[in-house]
Amino acid sequence: MACLSCDLAVAQQPYNGPQRTHLILKDGSYQVVTSYRISGKNVVYTSAERGGSQEEIPSNLIDWEATERYQKDHAPGAAQAAQNKVQLDPELQKEEADLRARTPEVAPNLRLPEDTSALALDTFHGTPELVPLVQSSGELNKQTAHNILKAAINPLSTSHQVVELKGPRSPIQLHVPDGPLYIRVGDDDTDGPSNAFEVNTHGAKQQQVSMGGSDKSTYVIVRCDVRRDVRIVSSFNISMIGTTKRQEDVIPTTVEMLPGGHWLKLTPKEQLDFGEYALMEILNEKEINLGVWDFGVHPNAPENREAIKPQERKKATLGIRKPIE
Questions:
Q1: Beta bridge partners of 107
Q2: How far is CA 300 from CA 117, 123, 265, 304, in A?
Q3: Which residues 6+ apart lie within 8 Å of 54 measured at CB?
Q4: Beta pairing class for 173-174 and 287-297
Q5: Of 125, 172, 233, 254, whose CB is crowded by the most CB atoms within 10 A?
Q6: Model pTM greater than 0.85?
Q7: Model pLDDT for residues 202-253, shown as the tens digit of each residue
């Protein structure tokens, strides 16, 4: 014999929710209702299928546990809560985290791309943009993403030309004087990657690397001496970098490793005057990389052709990976 007191013990309080619910019967059928209340041995409910009429049914015919589960499962926000509880495949979670680290967001809806090794964050007509920087040197292979042309600097010698860039103006022109620069690192070891090779180039050693700089390097911005048809980058004292001593035409940067260890963020320690510049990599206390990333700062310049603009991304959804049969 059914225990009426047991059924009533799990019966919910009178239901007057904002949506329809089901009174589920013990025989598996159900009534669609908008409200109900217990009256003695009966349940008085408002039928959602018969024009809101008031009807009664014996309470011992109702499966209260099933009715309670239905209401919890169909409560507002229950579907989203259930989705949030879904445990993703650990391998997929790792892949998603790595993708976010390789393409970090540096401005709203603006992410660093995977296929570029150096970029500048610019602002054109109020909109943030990422501008790819091209490594420049007459001796470097343009098909390689990150080149190293090693050259020793004698700190005791007088200032002299170390790099000559063709043309009086860089094709990359930034419109703000203090935007950060980004260097991709960590993909290869610039001290001696397995796919690198060296050649003699007028006394310097050239090392070509497929992608990525080194977080062991130091980076400075050097103002170029603009002449009629060229831009000249002069030598500087490496030992003074990081000290309080100021060197003419050398702008040190603050360095921040972005989460994930794939990108360095380089921010000029002072605003850049209008003019032409080169981002230089200091390999160690005696050597610099002659492969520089050149750019200019001119607020009235046209928009850069290769600029990457903000783009809203749809929220990625990862399904459960099916095993390979």
A1: 110
A2: 26, 12, 25, 12
A3: 44, 45, 46, 47
A4: parallel
A5: 233
A6: no
A7: 444 444 443 456 778 889 999 999 998 999 998 888 888 877 788 889 998 9
